[in-house]
Amino acid sequence: MTPIPDPEPLVLERTFNATVTRVWTALTQLDAIRQWFFHLPAFESRVGFDFGFTVECEGQKVVNQCRITEVVPESRLAFTWRYEGVEGESTITYELFAEGDKTRLKFTQTGLETFPKEPQFSRASFLEGWNWLVNESLKNHLEGPIPTP
Fold first, then answer.
1. What per-residue confidence (pLDDT) applies to 145?
2. In sequence order, what are the beta bridge partners of 14?
3. What's residue 55's pLDDT?
4. Residue-wise DSSP of 50-85
5. 10-143 is classed in which CATH architecture?
6. Cβ atoms < 10 Å from Cβ of 10
7. pLDDT of the chain along its 149 residues, tens only?
8. So where are the chain's domains?
9. Which among 29, 56, 138, 143 has most CB atoms closer than 10 A?
10. Closest CA to 94 of 79, 114, 112
11. Of the candidates 114, 134, 121, 110, which has an alpha carbon nearest to the alpha carbon of residue 18?
């Protein structure tokens, strides 16, 4: 059974026991990104910067291609997300909100309906992946011990 496309954005919100500066660093500094996200060869938080990475999914190598579209320091980061050789493109947006000494992160992914109607591109698949990245990996990175330089 093919999933029905859902034009609604995928939205996750999480409050971290970390300052906005620390969360922003985790989202925009290459060494920090590699600790909780994927091993990117390069990353710069500037509009127009292209970055990508390859992962293995169900025995196949998947090339993820992204381009930074918006940068508002310590507030908002947005980038496109697509797959080499696959139709469709989505947009990922991270928004940061200071709440005292904590930070609320609002994650939004739009454009899921542009991907092929296959299980690996379903809303449920994206939700599972982003839930793990934001609510487990990023949380553990931010709320664990502060790394020493």
1. 62
2. 105
3. 85
4. EEEEEEEETTEEEEEEEEEEEEETTTEEEEEEEETT
5. 2-Layer Sandwich (3.30)
6. 19
7. 454 445 789 999 999 999 999 999 999 999 999 999 999 999 999 999 999 999 887 778 889 999 999 999 999 999 999 999 999 999 999 999 999 999 999 999 999 999 999 888 889 999 999 999 999 999 999 997 655 54
8. 10-143
9. 138
10. 79
11. 134
The 10s digit of each residue's pLDDT in 49-84 is 999 999 887 778 889 999 999 999 999 999 999 999
- Its pTM stands at 0.89
Extract the tokens encoding 56: 């293995």
Taking alpha carbons only, the member of 122, 43, 39 closest to residue 79 is 43
Question: Nearest-CA neighbor of 96 among 3, 145, 25, 4?
Answer: 25
